[in-house]
Design a protein that fits this description.
- By secondary structure, this protein is mainly β.
- Among the domains are: 103-159, SH3 type barrels; 305-332 and 381-476, Immunoglobulin-like.
- It contains four helices and 32 strands.
- The chain has helices at residues 2-15, 103-109, 121-124, 250-255, and strands spanning 26-29, 34-42, 46-57, 60-66, 79-82, 89-97, 114-119, 129-137, 143-145, 150-151, 156-159, 172-179, 183-194, 196-206, 212-223, 229-238, 259-260, 267-272, 275-280, 284-286, 290-303, 305-311, 325-337, 350-357, 363-371, 379-403, 406-417, 423-430, 434-440, 445-448, 451-458, 463-473.
- Strands 2, 3, 5, 13, 16, 17, 18, 19 and 20 form a nine-stranded mixed β-sheet that branches. The chain has a nine-stranded mixed β-sheet with strand order 29-32-27-26-23-22-28-31-30, with no helix packed on it. A five-stranded antiparallel β-sheet has the order 10-9-8-7-11.
- The termini are far apart.
């Protein structure tokens, strides 16, 4: 019986073709194989990359070194599919090699292996000589073991054997692929990566009469991913995305979304889940270590409203205080509606900077403010700075408790206008608790449950005074 088993085993070993279980030769795929590259960049600095390439595969097991990928790739998010041939190519194993080849890593990778040391004539006083040595360590310096000694100083240079195929000079995704047929296959690789981020910046020119603004929206895109993307189809997602999953059907879903484009805009906007997605109409090249700007929108003659506002605090209603402030700042605000004309698309969060031409037709900076993601038909409100010529003084004229938990406090606000034109100041007072205005020199508006507002006109070169008394029930807090 043992003889039969031995004979069968021997026959099996002889009959097995040589190299049947050998690793396949590695095939390299570079940007030369690329058909298209699609980038979807999110607000938080994450991007979804779709890299489509044509790669020739053999029937059976193939090893492909997929080069020219982002150094910030998250390999756990990769998804590879054969376009037009579902199920014909499967991933058996994948490895993301990002330990790039350089003199230091090469030396470390050869610890415990033999190399050739060239002793240079400038150190030996003779001609160059060669000697085999084993690298024992590279911690704090090199340790070399020769046939008859150990040395810690290199007087020359090292010649390495042919570098291993696992040594990479660029981030590489090594794929073991099982193919059902021979021939060229169109492969789609998608993955999430860090190193790509975008934000919106807006620049506006305010008209001379301060009634309109011409607005330009720009996308500022930065690439520190370690890879360049030539002729990329770029999409931008605006919104607070908590979890993003790479899905093969993402582009099919986008095609079915309702789309709207501002007139003359180079960007198409689409509703996408609970976010908004912006697609650039033409491809763009994004180089590594590059910041570039692309036009998002252009809107001319957008109606605006400028207001001067004095905003108070709920804190000084609780007790008797001295003068609350002299020359209190009166803020300058500009508001416009995101609707109609060339606006009316969701505006991504960003910074708005406004300018205006002076008497010499030179543009001067008015101020800037940040905006959050703003849906269509919502208002945009910008605090540009404080008025130089319109100031305020505020003091508490009386305070007393009328009964338990209830107090009356009286205030005087003097508004001064050094302009040659009249100014209207909106006085906004947040009042805590259950409150009512029991005395006032001008009628107020209850603009919210905890806010009283007065509109005070101040003639040129003069002052206007507002007085009021607020009764506050603290037990209602």
């Amino acid at each position: 019986m043992n003889r039969i088993c031995s004979t069968f085993l021997m026959f099996s070993l002889v009959a097995t073709p040589a190299g049947a279980f050998a690793d396949p030769a590695e095939r390299t795929s570079t940007v030369a194989d690329r058909q298209s590259i699609n980038l979807t960049v999110y607000n938080g600095g994450t991007a979804l990359v779709h890299d489509r390439r044509v790669v020739r595969l053999n029937d059976g097991l193939n090893r492909v070194a997929w080069r020219d990928v982002s150094a910030g790739m998250d390999p756990t998010t990769t998804l590879l599919e054969a376009s037009g041939s579902p199920g014909k190519v499967t991933v058996v194993e994948q490895n993301f090699d990002f330990d790039l080849l350089d003199p230091s890593t090469l030396l470390q990778k050869y610890v415990g292996r033999d190399v050739t040391v060239v002793h240079e004539a400038r150190f030996t006083g003779e001609r160059d000589t060669r000697e085999t040595a084993r690298i024992l360590s590279t911690n704090g310096g090199i340790v070399l073991q020769y046939a008859d000694r150990i040395e810690t100083q290199l007087r020359g240079y090292i010649v390495y054997p042919t570098a291993s195929k696992n040594f990479r000079d660029t981030p590489t995704l090594a794929l073991d692929l099982e193919s059902a047929e021979n021939g060229a296959q169109t492969l789609d690789l998608s993955y999430l990566t860090s190193g790509l981020a975008w934000r919106a910046d807006y620049v506006g020119m305010v008209s001379a009469d301060e009634s309109h603004v011409s607005l330009t929206g720009l996308v500022t895109l930065s690439n520190t991913s370690g890879e360049s993307y030539d002729d990329a189809h770029l999409q931008l997602v605006a919104g607070n995305v908590n979890v993003v999953e790479p899905q093969s059907s993402v582009y099919g879903a986008l095609k079915s979304s309702a789309a709207e484009t501002a007139a003359g805009s180079p960007v198409r906007q689409e509703n996408y889940f609970e976010y908004h997605l912006y697609t650039l109409e033409r491809p763009t090249t994004i180089l590594d270590k590059q910041t570039k700007q692309l036009t998002l929108l252009t809107a001319r003659n957008v109606p605006i409203r400028k207001t001067l506002e004095l905003r108070g605090s709920p804190d000084y209603y609780r007790s008797a205080d001295a003068d609350i402030g002299d020359r209190l700042p009166v803020g300058a605000y500009v508001t416009f509606q995101n609707r109609g004309g060339e606006l009316g698309i969701p505006l991504p969060a960003g910074i708005v900077r406004l300018y205006q031409n002076d008497a010499h037709n030179l543009s001067q900076f008015l101020g800037s403010d940040s905006i959050d993601h703003t849906p269509k038909n919502e208002s945009v409100r910008l605090h540009l700075g404080d008025s130089f010529d319109v100031t305020a003084r505020k003091r508490q004229t009386d305070f007393h408790e009328t009964k338990s938990c209830t107090s009356d406090s009286s205030y005087q606000i003097v508004l001064s206008n050094a302009k040659t034109t009249a100014a209207t100041v909106l006085v906004v007072e947040p009042i805590p608790g259950d409150w009512q205005i029991v005395q006032e020199s001008l009628p107020h508006v209850k603009s919210s449950a905890s806010t009283a507002s007065w509109s005070v006109r101040v003639p040129p070169g003069e002052r206007s005074t507002l007085t009021y008394t607020a009764r506050v029930n603290w037990c209602a807090e």
